[in-house]
Amino acid sequence: MNTFKQLQVTNEPHFQTAIVSAELPKLTNHDVLVKVAYSDVNYKDALACTENGQVIRHYPMTPGIDLAGIVVKSLDPRFVPGDRVLATGYGLGVSQPGGYSQYQAVPGEWLVPLPETMDLRQAMILGTAGFTAALCVNALLKQGMSPTDPIIVTGASGGVGSVAIAMLHKLGFQSITAFSRKADTQIWLQKLGASEVVHPDDFLPEKTKPLDKQQVAYVIDTVGGEQLTRLLPLVAYDGAVALCGNAGGIQLSTSVLPFILRNIQLIGIDSVNVSHEQRLHVWRQLAELSITDKLLVTEITLDAVPKTTKHILEGTHQGRTLVKVGESI
Description:
Layout: E1 3-10, E2 16-23, E3 31-40, H1 43-48, E4 66-74, E5 84-88, E6 103-107, E7 112-113, H2 120-142, E8 151-153, H3 159-170, E9 176-179, H4 186-192, E10 196-198, H5 200-203, E11 216-221, H6 225-231, E12 235-243, H7 257-261, E13 265-268, H8 276-289, E14 297-300, H9 305-314, E15 320-324
Parallel strand pairs: 8-9, 8-11, 9-10, 11-12, 12-13, 14-15
Antiparallel strand pairs: 1-2, 3-4, 3-6, 3-15, 4-5, 5-7
Pfam families: ADH_N, ADH_zinc_N
Organism: Candidatus Enterococcus wittei
Protein name: Rhodanese domain-containing protein
Protein backbone atom coordinates (compact mmCIF):
# COMPACT_ATOMS: atom_id res chain seq x y z
CA MET A 1 0.00 0.00 0.00
CA ASN A 2 1.65 3.22 -1.17
CA THR A 3 -1.19 5.66 -0.44
CA PHE A 4 -3.57 6.07 2.47
CA LYS A 5 -6.09 8.52 3.92
CA GLN A 6 -5.54 11.24 6.48
CA LEU A 7 -7.33 14.30 7.85
CA GLN A 8 -5.48 17.49 6.98
CA VAL A 9 -5.92 21.11 7.99
CA THR A 10 -4.60 23.91 5.81
CA ASN A 11 -4.79 27.70 5.70
CA GLU A 12 -4.37 28.18 1.95
CA PRO A 13 -6.22 29.63 0.17
CA HIS A 14 -8.32 29.69 3.36
CA PHE A 15 -8.61 27.59 6.51
CA GLN A 16 -10.22 24.21 5.89
CA THR A 17 -10.18 20.57 6.94
CA ALA A 18 -10.38 17.71 4.46
CA ILE A 19 -9.73 14.01 4.02
CA VAL A 20 -6.82 13.68 1.60
CA SER A 21 -4.71 10.92 0.07
CA ALA A 22 -1.05 10.75 1.08
CA GLU A 23 1.98 8.65 0.28
CA LEU A 24 3.82 6.61 2.88
CA PRO A 25 6.39 8.82 4.59
CA LYS A 26 10.11 8.14 4.41
CA LEU A 27 11.69 7.27 7.73
CA THR A 28 14.76 9.08 9.10
CA ASN A 29 16.88 8.78 12.23
CA HIS A 30 14.98 6.58 14.71
CA ASP A 31 11.53 6.92 13.12
CA VAL A 32 8.93 4.17 13.36
CA LEU A 33 6.15 3.69 10.81
CA VAL A 34 2.89 2.89 12.60
CA LYS A 35 -0.29 1.59 11.03
CA VAL A 36 -2.76 3.59 13.10
CA ALA A 37 -5.79 1.75 14.41
CA TYR A 38 -7.28 4.40 16.71
CA SER A 39 -6.93 7.99 17.77
CA ASP A 40 -9.27 10.17 19.86
CA VAL A 41 -10.51 13.74 20.19
CA ASN A 42 -9.19 16.07 22.89
CA TYR A 43 -9.70 19.78 23.55
CA LYS A 44 -6.32 20.47 21.96
CA ASP A 45 -7.43 18.61 18.82
CA ALA A 46 -10.52 20.80 18.71
CA LEU A 47 -8.33 23.90 18.80
CA ALA A 48 -6.13 22.45 16.07
CA CYS A 49 -9.16 22.05 13.82
CA THR A 50 -10.31 25.65 14.16
CA GLU A 51 -8.89 28.68 12.42
CA ASN A 52 -7.98 30.68 15.50
CA GLY A 53 -6.98 27.77 17.72
CA GLN A 54 -3.34 28.92 17.95
CA VAL A 55 -2.16 25.32 18.30
CA ILE A 56 -0.82 24.32 14.89
CA ARG A 57 2.81 25.36 14.37
CA HIS A 58 2.74 25.23 10.56
CA TYR A 59 0.40 24.25 7.73
CA PRO A 60 -0.61 21.93 6.24
CA MET A 61 -0.86 19.65 9.29
CA THR A 62 -2.48 16.36 10.22
CA PRO A 63 -3.99 16.85 13.71
CA GLY A 64 -4.40 14.18 16.36
CA ILE A 65 -2.27 14.40 19.49
CA ASP A 66 -2.77 10.68 20.21
CA LEU A 67 -2.46 7.43 18.28
CA ALA A 68 -2.33 3.69 18.85
CA GLY A 69 -1.42 1.08 16.29
CA ILE A 70 0.92 -1.60 14.97
CA VAL A 71 4.55 -1.08 13.95
CA VAL A 72 5.03 -1.67 10.21
CA LYS A 73 8.67 -0.62 9.85
CA SER A 74 11.23 0.62 12.35
CA LEU A 75 14.59 2.38 12.35
CA ASP A 76 14.57 2.27 16.15
CA PRO A 77 16.05 -0.93 17.61
CA ARG A 78 13.52 -0.87 20.46
CA PHE A 79 10.65 -1.66 18.08
CA VAL A 80 10.05 -4.32 15.45
CA PRO A 81 7.19 -4.89 12.99
CA GLY A 82 4.15 -6.24 14.79
CA ASP A 83 4.73 -4.38 18.06
CA ARG A 84 1.65 -2.69 19.53
CA VAL A 85 2.42 0.90 20.49
CA LEU A 86 0.81 4.17 21.53
CA ALA A 87 1.89 7.80 21.53
CA THR A 88 0.48 10.88 23.20
CA GLY A 89 1.64 14.49 23.34
CA TYR A 90 5.10 15.65 22.33
CA GLY A 91 4.69 17.33 18.92
CA LEU A 92 2.02 15.02 17.52
CA GLY A 93 -0.66 16.93 15.65
CA VAL A 94 0.99 20.25 16.47
CA SER A 95 4.47 20.47 15.00
CA GLN A 96 4.56 17.01 13.46
CA PRO A 97 1.78 15.09 11.66
CA GLY A 98 -0.44 13.32 14.16
CA GLY A 99 -2.88 10.52 14.72
CA TYR A 100 -5.65 11.36 12.24
CA SER A 101 -3.88 9.31 9.61
CA GLN A 102 -4.02 5.65 8.64
CA TYR A 103 -0.21 5.52 8.69
CA GLN A 104 2.16 7.77 10.58
CA ALA A 105 5.92 8.11 11.07
CA VAL A 106 6.70 8.71 14.74
CA PRO A 107 10.05 9.23 16.49
CA GLY A 108 10.81 6.06 18.40
CA GLU A 109 11.44 7.94 21.65
CA TRP A 110 7.82 9.14 21.58
CA LEU A 111 6.37 5.64 21.50
CA VAL A 112 5.21 3.61 24.49
CA PRO A 113 4.84 -0.17 24.19
CA LEU A 114 1.20 -1.06 24.79
CA PRO A 115 0.73 -2.73 28.20
CA GLU A 116 -0.04 -6.44 27.83
CA THR A 117 -3.43 -6.17 29.53
CA MET A 118 -4.59 -3.24 27.35
CA ASP A 119 -5.72 -3.29 23.72
CA LEU A 120 -5.37 -0.52 21.14
CA ARG A 121 -8.98 0.55 21.47
CA GLN A 122 -8.76 0.88 25.26
CA ALA A 123 -5.56 2.90 24.95
CA MET A 124 -7.29 5.55 22.85
CA ILE A 125 -10.47 5.56 24.91
CA LEU A 126 -8.08 6.94 27.53
CA GLY A 127 -5.53 8.81 25.39
CA THR A 128 -4.21 12.16 26.58
CA ALA A 129 -7.33 12.69 28.68
CA GLY A 130 -6.78 9.51 30.67
CA PHE A 131 -3.05 10.11 30.89
CA THR A 132 -3.64 13.64 32.20
CA ALA A 133 -6.25 12.44 34.69
CA ALA A 134 -3.76 9.90 36.03
CA LEU A 135 -1.07 12.57 36.37
CA CYS A 136 -3.53 14.72 38.36
CA VAL A 137 -4.57 11.88 40.65
CA ASN A 138 -0.95 10.84 41.24
CA ALA A 139 0.09 14.42 42.02
CA LEU A 140 -2.61 14.71 44.68
CA LEU A 141 -1.84 11.28 46.14
CA LYS A 142 1.74 12.47 46.52
CA GLN A 143 0.40 15.45 48.51
CA GLY A 144 -1.31 13.07 50.94
CA MET A 145 -4.80 12.70 49.45
CA SER A 146 -6.64 9.70 50.92
CA PRO A 147 -9.96 8.00 49.98
CA THR A 148 -11.83 9.67 52.85
CA ASP A 149 -10.90 13.21 51.76
CA PRO A 150 -13.53 15.30 49.93
CA ILE A 151 -12.46 16.08 46.37
CA ILE A 152 -13.94 18.21 43.59
CA VAL A 153 -13.47 17.42 39.91
CA THR A 154 -14.31 20.32 37.60
CA GLY A 155 -15.37 19.95 33.98
CA ALA A 156 -16.58 16.53 35.06
CA SER A 157 -18.40 15.59 31.86
CA GLY A 158 -15.29 16.13 29.73
CA GLY A 159 -12.56 13.64 28.96
CA VAL A 160 -10.11 14.39 31.78
CA GLY A 161 -12.83 14.97 34.36
CA SER A 162 -14.78 11.81 33.64
CA VAL A 163 -11.67 9.61 33.60
CA ALA A 164 -10.49 11.19 36.87
CA ILE A 165 -13.81 10.36 38.52
CA ALA A 166 -13.63 6.75 37.30
CA MET A 167 -10.05 6.45 38.57
CA LEU A 168 -10.84 7.93 41.97
CA HIS A 169 -13.86 5.64 42.37
CA LYS A 170 -11.78 2.58 41.46
CA LEU A 171 -9.19 3.67 44.04
CA GLY A 172 -11.89 3.75 46.74
CA PHE A 173 -12.62 7.47 47.05
CA GLN A 174 -15.96 8.07 48.72
CA SER A 175 -16.59 11.83 48.48
CA ILE A 176 -16.26 12.98 44.88
CA THR A 177 -18.13 16.14 43.92
CA ALA A 178 -18.46 16.54 40.15
CA PHE A 179 -18.83 20.06 38.77
CA SER A 180 -20.93 20.10 35.61
CA ARG A 181 -22.97 22.78 33.89
CA LYS A 182 -24.88 20.18 31.86
CA ALA A 183 -28.18 19.16 33.45
CA ASP A 184 -28.27 15.78 31.72
CA THR A 185 -24.96 14.50 33.13
CA GLN A 186 -26.03 13.64 36.67
CA ILE A 187 -27.03 10.02 36.18
CA TRP A 188 -23.99 8.89 34.20
CA LEU A 189 -21.51 10.82 36.34
CA GLN A 190 -22.95 9.18 39.47
CA LYS A 191 -22.70 5.78 37.80
CA LEU A 192 -19.09 6.65 37.07
CA GLY A 193 -18.44 7.21 40.77
CA ALA A 194 -19.38 10.79 41.67
CA SER A 195 -21.08 11.02 45.06
CA GLU A 196 -22.82 14.21 43.95
CA VAL A 197 -23.11 16.29 40.79
CA VAL A 198 -23.53 20.05 41.18
CA HIS A 199 -23.65 23.10 38.98
CA PRO A 200 -20.55 25.18 39.87
CA ASP A 201 -22.65 28.29 40.54
CA ASP A 202 -24.73 26.36 43.08
CA PHE A 203 -21.60 25.46 45.03
CA LEU A 204 -19.38 28.51 44.69
CA PRO A 205 -20.18 31.72 46.63
CA GLU A 206 -21.36 34.68 44.57
CA LYS A 207 -18.75 36.95 46.13
CA THR A 208 -15.16 35.73 46.15
CA LYS A 209 -13.29 36.42 49.39
CA PRO A 210 -9.54 36.01 49.94
CA LEU A 211 -10.46 33.18 52.34
CA ASP A 212 -13.79 31.45 52.81
CA LYS A 213 -15.24 28.42 54.55
CA GLN A 214 -13.03 25.36 54.05
CA GLN A 215 -15.17 22.97 52.01
CA VAL A 216 -12.87 20.72 50.00
CA ALA A 217 -9.52 19.07 50.61
CA TYR A 218 -8.42 18.44 47.02
CA VAL A 219 -9.39 19.61 43.53
CA ILE A 220 -8.73 18.33 40.03
CA ASP A 221 -9.35 21.41 37.90
CA THR A 222 -9.71 21.06 34.14
CA VAL A 223 -11.18 24.54 33.65
CA GLY A 224 -8.98 27.28 35.14
CA GLY A 225 -9.97 30.94 34.88
CA GLU A 226 -12.63 32.51 37.08
CA GLN A 227 -13.89 29.19 38.40
CA LEU A 228 -10.47 28.35 39.85
CA THR A 229 -10.28 31.86 41.31
CA ARG A 230 -13.53 31.16 43.16
CA LEU A 231 -12.43 27.69 44.27
CA LEU A 232 -9.07 28.45 45.85
CA PRO A 233 -10.46 30.26 48.95
CA LEU A 234 -12.54 27.12 49.72
CA VAL A 235 -9.64 24.66 49.81
CA ALA A 236 -8.92 23.35 53.30
CA TYR A 237 -5.67 23.60 55.23
CA ASP A 238 -2.89 21.46 53.69
CA GLY A 239 -5.08 20.87 50.65
CA ALA A 240 -4.00 20.90 47.01
CA VAL A 241 -5.28 21.64 43.52
CA ALA A 242 -4.04 19.85 40.40
CA LEU A 243 -4.56 22.24 37.47
CA CYS A 244 -4.50 20.81 33.96
CA GLY A 245 -6.82 22.91 31.79
CA ASN A 246 -7.70 26.43 30.68
CA ALA A 247 -11.08 26.03 28.97
CA GLY A 248 -12.38 28.73 31.34
CA GLY A 249 -9.57 31.14 30.52
CA ILE A 250 -5.89 31.63 31.24
CA GLN A 251 -6.22 34.44 33.78
CA LEU A 252 -6.12 33.75 37.51
CA SER A 253 -7.06 36.54 39.93
CA THR A 254 -6.37 35.54 43.52
CA SER A 255 -4.50 36.49 46.67
CA VAL A 256 -1.58 34.85 48.44
CA LEU A 257 -3.69 34.11 51.55
CA PRO A 258 -4.84 30.56 50.69
CA PHE A 259 -1.21 29.64 50.08
CA ILE A 260 0.45 31.24 53.10
CA LEU A 261 -2.36 30.93 55.69
CA ARG A 262 -3.76 27.54 54.70
CA ASN A 263 -0.62 26.00 53.24
CA ILE A 264 -2.38 24.86 50.08
CA GLN A 265 -0.55 23.77 46.93
CA LEU A 266 -1.42 24.69 43.34
CA ILE A 267 0.17 22.06 41.10
CA GLY A 268 0.44 22.53 37.37
CA ILE A 269 0.00 19.37 35.30
CA ASP A 270 1.57 19.03 31.85
CA SER A 271 0.98 15.89 29.77
CA VAL A 272 2.97 16.86 26.66
CA ASN A 273 6.61 16.55 27.71
CA VAL A 274 6.43 13.95 30.49
CA SER A 275 9.51 11.72 30.74
CA HIS A 276 9.46 8.33 29.05
CA GLU A 277 9.92 6.54 32.38
CA GLN A 278 6.89 8.27 33.89
CA ARG A 279 4.83 7.49 30.80
CA LEU A 280 5.60 3.79 31.17
CA HIS A 281 4.55 3.89 34.82
CA VAL A 282 1.29 5.76 34.17
CA TRP A 283 0.22 3.51 31.31
CA ARG A 284 0.88 0.41 33.42
CA GLN A 285 -1.22 2.02 36.15
CA LEU A 286 -4.07 2.75 33.75
CA ALA A 287 -3.96 -0.81 32.41
CA GLU A 288 -4.15 -2.23 35.94
CA LEU A 289 -7.09 -0.01 36.92
CA SER A 290 -9.09 -1.21 33.89
CA ILE A 291 -11.74 1.53 33.82
CA THR A 292 -12.48 1.93 30.11
CA ASP A 293 -15.69 -0.12 30.28
CA LYS A 294 -17.08 2.43 32.77
CA LEU A 295 -16.58 5.48 30.55
CA LEU A 296 -19.02 7.19 28.19
CA VAL A 297 -17.54 6.55 24.74
CA THR A 298 -18.64 7.62 21.27
CA GLU A 299 -16.87 6.01 18.31
CA ILE A 300 -16.47 7.87 15.02
CA THR A 301 -14.42 7.74 11.81
CA LEU A 302 -12.10 10.43 10.47
CA ASP A 303 -14.77 12.21 8.47
CA ALA A 304 -16.75 12.97 11.65
CA VAL A 305 -13.84 14.61 13.50
CA PRO A 306 -14.65 18.22 12.49
CA LYS A 307 -18.22 17.90 13.78
CA THR A 308 -16.99 16.51 17.10
CA THR A 309 -14.38 19.24 17.54
CA LYS A 310 -17.12 21.82 16.99
CA HIS A 311 -19.16 20.28 19.81
CA ILE A 312 -16.15 20.35 22.12
CA LEU A 313 -15.56 24.05 21.52
CA GLU A 314 -19.28 24.76 21.97
CA GLY A 315 -19.22 22.96 25.32
CA THR A 316 -21.81 20.38 24.29
CA HIS A 317 -19.50 17.37 24.10
CA GLN A 318 -19.53 14.68 26.79
CA GLY A 319 -17.24 11.81 27.68
CA ARG A 320 -14.64 10.42 25.32
CA THR A 321 -14.71 10.24 21.51
CA LEU A 322 -12.74 7.41 19.94
CA VAL A 323 -11.63 7.78 16.32
CA LYS A 324 -11.42 4.50 14.39
CA VAL A 325 -8.68 5.56 11.98
CA GLY A 326 -7.97 2.13 10.53
CA GLU A 327 -11.42 1.86 9.00
CA SER A 328 -11.48 2.63 5.28
CA ILE A 329 -13.05 5.96 4.34
